[in-house]
Recover the amino acids of this structure.
């Protein structure tokens, strides 16, 4: 496989790009692997990558029921930030943000990480106090955020209307090193690196059953036949409850649809990410000029990937109020993803009642930003059988013991 260095790019440019090989292969599954990971979204791929990179385990299969990155990883609005309230959340999201900074170089694949800054607007007195509290917490956690006033908001985002009729902008939580990355590229970059390390990525291979013996996992049933494994990691986001059911236990989470929309492309007009949680809508401008807009979750459990129509209407109304210049823009498309939401809006990285079976889920509406950190922590859990400092607070046992990590405000999406 060719690297993507300057000489390769020049050579291939002169040859009409006919010499590039496939970025990852499509191997037939072997009968057994040391580790099987279900789900080739960002979290599953990152788990496999750090298992190989940090723990030297490469006898791994990542099984994907459809195409790699086709779940929420390829459907999100790509926002990366680490300005969460509680220490365990700040630690894992900041680990991820730091890994994102050098991920292009590490994977030799341009993930287009753009630390353009993320602004979370305060549009009520209550929200202002909340963001000020988060800013103070972030200082203690060593995370670079601060609360800025409405004048600085206006200076950084000239198209914003700070004197909105319902909710004037009273300030914002500003994280200058937050930003965006190209979501597909994150999945593709990890996949290509895994292929080079000898890890099998098997697409169109749905897991339909989980086999256990004496309380211990021994393998999975798939559309391509049975596969045995020493350890199994379920990393399937909105489908986690279904997979857990196959293994005979339940997860404290619900699956709902979260929507996003994108406008026609326009000239550069917005060079930061803005989240307006009170009116509910968040927005950034892609490299192609489209405005990438995030909506809300459905208020009822479903697996549709379409979502309720009124969310489009509500989101657009909220954004036009905050950014009146968007009023005449046309929307190009709208889509949804099935997100996995826990009661405290924090993820689950955990052992399970089944020996050697681990889960990584519950990232809900905000797991893209966490992909490298989550993969790092999950790899340690799978490799050693015990959680490290990053994963330990996110164990399933917290729901039994009442050690919730309530991030419903920092999660930033109404649900
Ligand atoms: C509209 C939208 C906007 C979002 N915006 C943001 C954002 O701006 N910032 C942010 O940080 N997060 C955001 N998120 C959340 C983020 O996308 C997810 O938390 C993250 O992508 C989850 O990654 P994952 O790898 O866990 O899941 P996924 O990418 O969904 O991967 C799970 C994979 O498992 C596969 N699978 C399921 N069942 C099986 C089976 N039985 N057998 C084999 N494979 C199976 C699926 O096909 C899928 O590919 C958003 C989500 C949505 C839907």
């Amino acid at each position: 496989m060719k690297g993507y260095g300057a000489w390769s790019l020049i050579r291939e440019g002169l040859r009409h790009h006919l010499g590039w090989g496939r970025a990852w292969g499509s191997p037939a599954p072997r009968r057994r692997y040391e580790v099987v990971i279900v789900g080739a979204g960002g979290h599953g791929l990152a788990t496999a990558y750090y298992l190989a990179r940090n723990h030297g385990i490469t006898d791994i299969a990542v099984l994907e029921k459809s195409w790699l990155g086709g779940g929420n990883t390829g459907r999100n609005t790509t926002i990366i930030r680490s300005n969460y309230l509680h220490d365990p959340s700040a630690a894992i999201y900041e680990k991820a943000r730091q890994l994102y900074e050098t991920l292009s170089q590490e994977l030799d694949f341009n993930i287009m990480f753009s630390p353009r800054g993320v602004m979370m607007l305060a549009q009520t007195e209550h929200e202002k106090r909340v963001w000020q509290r988060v800013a103070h917490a972030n200082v203690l956690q060593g995370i670079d955020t601060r609360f800025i006033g409405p004048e600085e908001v206006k200076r950084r985002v000239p198209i914003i209307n700070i004197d909105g009729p319902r909710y004037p902008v009273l300030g914002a939580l500003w994280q200058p090193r937050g930003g965006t990355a190209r979501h597909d590229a994150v999945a593709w970059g990890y996949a290509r690196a895994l292929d080079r390390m000898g890890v099998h990525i098997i697409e169109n291979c749905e897991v339909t059953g989980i086999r256990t013996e004496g309380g211990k996992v021994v393998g999975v049933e798939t559309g391509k036949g049975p596969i045995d494994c020493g350890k199994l990691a379920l990393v399937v986001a909105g489908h986690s409850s279904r997979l857990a059911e196959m293994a005979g236990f339940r997860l404290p989470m619900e699956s709902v649809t979260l929507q996003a929309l994108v406008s026609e492309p326009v000239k550069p007009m917005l060079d930061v990410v803005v989240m307006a949680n009170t009116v509910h809508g968040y927005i950034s401008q892609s490299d192609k000029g489209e405005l990438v807009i995030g909506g809300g979750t459905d208020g009822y459990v479903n697996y549709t990937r379409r979502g309720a129509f009124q969310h489009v209407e509500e989101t657009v109304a909220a954004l036009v109020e905050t950014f009146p210049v968007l009023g005449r823009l046309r929307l190009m498309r709208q889509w949804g993803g099935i997100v996995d939401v826990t009661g405290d809006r924090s993820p689950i990285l955990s052992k399970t009642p089944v020996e050697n079976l681990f889960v990584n889920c519950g990232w809900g509406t905000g797991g893209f930003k966490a992909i490298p950190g989550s993969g790092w922590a999950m790899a340690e859990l799978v490799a050693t059988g015990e959680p490290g400092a990053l994963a330990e607070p996110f164990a399933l046992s917290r729901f039994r013991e009442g050690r919730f990590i309530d991030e419903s405000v920092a999660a930033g999406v109404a649900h």
Remarks:
- The chain has a mean pLDDT of 95.
- The pocket of flavin-adenine dinucleotide is lined by residues 38-44, 63-66, 70-73, 75-79, 206-207, 235-237, 239, 243, 258-260, 294, 337, 339, 363, 365-369 (CB under 6 Å).
- The radius of gyration is 21 Å.
- The first strand starts at residue 32 and ends at 38.
